[in-house]
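Try this one yourself first.
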């Protein structure tokens, strides 16, 4: 505790500072002031718990000070000390809420008793405040705590229900552990993926309320939790009926309301659990059925609906050879549309399951890898750097993931094709620059600068596109012109050399001889003899 003494008489202040056993009272700091202005400064800068305050002072009364304290620092306990036994003072002090009122000269033992009482009251109020804060915290997070405990229990491979049951008792949820329950697993599938996502906490709140309202006539006792994004679980306990099929009419109303107002289609998996303790094993069965629903068919599915067995139709492969030809010729968006339409049609016909998706994935990847090989692209680089390898491996687990893989693959080929066109265009510009400036001493940097490319990258790209290095290509083009001039004109060799950017005659001769196997003069003589 910290105490502030306010009195305009220094001897009174000094007497209390030395005469009261502050250590025994467990007072940490004792501040003092001789007027209310200084007192306010101390209160503004320090934590004060108790004030020992005179009433009559020259720069403002203690009552005025406490009126200010009561407004801005209501937790401070004020003990008034005054030498005037005036009932009006006491009356106003009590009205303002002062803790005690002592007539001076008061023995130090009386002041110590008043401080002890104030300390006890402060500690009591602090504890009550802590309880209130804790109670508010529990109340506000009741849903979150129940979510966490129920989710952990349902997903546990070695379940222990003690924590969950004990917590439910604290929030007045009375559940008979050996009574049968109905378990629902809800997978929400958005109707229009282009629409903005709802906040998950808000979505959980809405789904819980709508489900509770639709099931009210069937059972008012429901536990609810969120398992992951757009997936929820509900447990109905102590309902009038525990047969799973009895809940179907109520669930149909819920699914209709969710579709109309939330714009979600829902796959609802239902299973009866013989007791609360059987819920985790029942949840594992429903999770398996949810995972097997690769196409995300929606509706109500009672336990035992095996999606992997729902259709034994033979896998009908699309025309991958035709798609490959279209992709090779640049019809990327057409192929994308055809592939999505094929899968959507298979879903409408009820042919989508994990087995058929796996077969489709194998055929698609074979086509995709063949196209990559044509362009000398290593597949491992794509699925290491640009597409998560886990996503690739689980593409057949759901129709949604398969659509994502198709989009990625087509986009990759489309972007690669565009980059090839861009590269070819840049190389054409480089060649045009060389032809226009063939009479000069052309450098790699000059060419790269003219088309805004990095010189090293230009060299690599040129070699890849043309199969010849950039420097060799320049020499080749210059010497073609030189050979033509040697054969068709009487210009001197030195002039011909200078016309194609060679200022050093001997170097030109050396380069020419290296390519044609003879000197420029010998080449001219041979050409002249051939013409004769």
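Now uncover the answer:
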């Amino acid at each position: 505790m910290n105490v502030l003494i306010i009195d305009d008489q220094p001897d009174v202040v000094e007497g209390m500072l030395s005469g009261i056993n502050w250590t025994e009272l467990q007072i940490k700091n004792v501040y003092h002031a001789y007027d209310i202005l200084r007192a306010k400064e101390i209160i503004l800068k320090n934590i004060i718990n108790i004030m020992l305050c005179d009433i009559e002072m020259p720069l403002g009364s203690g009552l005025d000070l406490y009126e200010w304290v009561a407004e801005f620092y209501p937790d401070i306990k004020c003990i008034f000390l005054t030498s005037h036994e005036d009932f009006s003072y006491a009356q106003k002090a009590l009205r303002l809420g002062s803790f005690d009122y002592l007539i001076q000269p008061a023995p130090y033992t009386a002041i110590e008793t008043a401080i002890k009482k104030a300390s006890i009251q402060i500690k009591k109020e602090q504890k009550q405040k802590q309880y209130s804060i804790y109670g508010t915290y529990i109340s506000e997070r009741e849903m979150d705590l129940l979510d966490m405990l129920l989710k952990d229990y349902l997903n546990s491979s070695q379940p222990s229900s003690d924590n969950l049951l004990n917590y439910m008792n604290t929030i007045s949820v009375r559940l008979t552990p050996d009574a049968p329950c109905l378990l629902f697993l809800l997978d929400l599938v958005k109707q229009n993926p282009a629409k903005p996502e709802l906040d998950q906490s808000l979505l959980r709140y809405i789904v819980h309320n709508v489900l509770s309202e639709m099931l009210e006539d069937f059972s008012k006792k429901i536990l609810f939790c969120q398992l992951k994004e757009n997936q929820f679980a509900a447990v109905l306990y102590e309902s009038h009926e525990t047969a799973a099929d009895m809940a179907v009419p109520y669930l149909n109303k819920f699914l209709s309301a969710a579709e109309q107002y939330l714009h979600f289609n829902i796959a609802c998996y239902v299973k009866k659990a013989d007791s609360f303790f059987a819920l985790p094993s029942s949840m594992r069965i429903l999770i398996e059925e949810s995972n097997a629903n690769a196409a995300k068919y929606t509706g109500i599915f009672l336990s035992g609906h095996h999606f992997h067995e729902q259709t034994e139709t033979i896998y009908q492969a699309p025309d991958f050879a035709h798609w490959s030809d279209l992709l090779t010729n640049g019809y990327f968006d057409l192929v994308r549309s055809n592939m999505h339409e094929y899968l959507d049609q298979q879903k409408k016909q009820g042919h989508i399951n994990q087995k058929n998706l796996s077969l489709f994935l194998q055929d698609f990847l074979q086509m995709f890898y063949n196209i990559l090989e044509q362009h000398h692209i290593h597949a491992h680089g794509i699925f290491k750097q640009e597409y998560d390898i886990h996503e690739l491996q689980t593409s057949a687990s759901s129709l949604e993931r398969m659509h994502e893989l198709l989009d990625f693959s087509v986009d990759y080929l489309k972007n690669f094709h565009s980059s090839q066109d861009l590269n070819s265009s840049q190389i054409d510009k480089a060649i045009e620059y060389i032809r226009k400036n063939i009479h000069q001493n052309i450098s790699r940097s000059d060419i790269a600068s003219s088309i805004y490319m990095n010189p090293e990258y230009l060299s690599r790209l040129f070699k890849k596109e043309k199969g010849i290095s950039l420097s060799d290509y320049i020499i080749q083009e210059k010497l073609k012109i030189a050979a033509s001039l040697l054969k068709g004109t009487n210009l001197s060799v030195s002039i011909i050399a200078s016309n194609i950017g060679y200022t050093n005659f001997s170097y030109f001769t050396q380069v020419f001889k290296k390519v044609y196997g003879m000197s420029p003069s010998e080449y001219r003589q041979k050409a002249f003899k051939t013409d004769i």
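Discussion: DSSP finds 22 helices and ten strands in the chain. The beta strands are 2-6, 29-33, 50-54, 77-82, 100-103, 181-190, 222-228, 231-237, 264-273, 299-302.
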